[in-house]
Amino acid sequence: LGKPWNFAEETDSTNDWAKREAGKGAPNGAVFLVRNQTKGKGRRGRSWADPKGSGLAMSLLLRPDMAPERAPMMTVLMGLSAAQAVADVTGKEALIKWPNDLVMSGKKLCGILTEMSMQGTKIAYVVIGIGINLTVEKFPEEIKDKATSLKLECGEAPDVERMAAAVLERFEQNYESFLAAGDLSPFKEEYDRLLANRGREVKVLEKERELVGTCLGIDEAGELLVQTPGGECKTVFAGEVSVRGL
Ligand code: BTN
């Protein structure tokens, strides 16, 4: 992974950049890294605010030969890889807010946006975009109580290239084990240890259901296991869901 390593001073969104290049035949493993992202995208059509040069904005293009249903596992894998990379670089532990975010001191540090394109019934490509707040010290009013950065948490932040390399190094190793195992079973234990909501009451909002229960961890497919008050164990697929602590 990381070949080619595409770097630009500025682009709209690294995910959109990666998708444009994917359409022109960019290979599996291509990385798109930018200093200044002007139109960063978040999940659910939201924007990802990226004050100039203050964060990591990177997208990885993958062309896995696997069923599209398994694509969400790669988001889960990137979340774990990012948490490991943050610990590698800063020595501080970030927790994972399944399926997409990393938090420190209960505030969001990192977001992941995975987009997939299909060719017939197969995956044409997957773009995994990751944003990590590095040097931001002042967030916009509406997110200031919910967001944090490595600078705020650790006193200093690594530069973009170092953070990017650390994330990719971890993801590359993990991706190999994931492909070999065929699922996330090799990572379950570590993931559960880093899971912010584990053992706590959560409310999961999926398209058509709302589920309240105790978060138990993930299963080998990367789905969240939630035990309902009635004692039943339900699995939540890492699609379009939002998880709240209660
Ligand atoms: C979220 O938390 O809603 C996901 C945020 C994802 C942000 C990253 S920054 C790099 C990549 N390019 C984008 O436009 N978005 C992702």
Describe what this molecule looks like in 3D.
The chain has 246 residues and is an alpha+beta fold. The chain has two domains: 5-193, BirA Bifunctional Protein, domain 2, CATH 3.30.930.10; 198-245, SH3 type barrels, CATH 2.30.30. Helix content is 26%, strand content 33%. It has helices at 14-23, 71-90, 150-154, 160-181, 188-194, and strands at 5-11, 31-37, 55-62, 95-97, 101-104, 107-119, 122-133, 201-205, 210-218, 224-227, 233-236, 242-245. Helix 2 packs across helix 4 (160-181). The protein starts with a strand and ends with a strand. The model has no long low-confidence stretch (mean pLDDT 92). Biotin is lined by residues 13-15, 40-43, 46, 48, 57-59, 100-101, 111-113, 129-131.
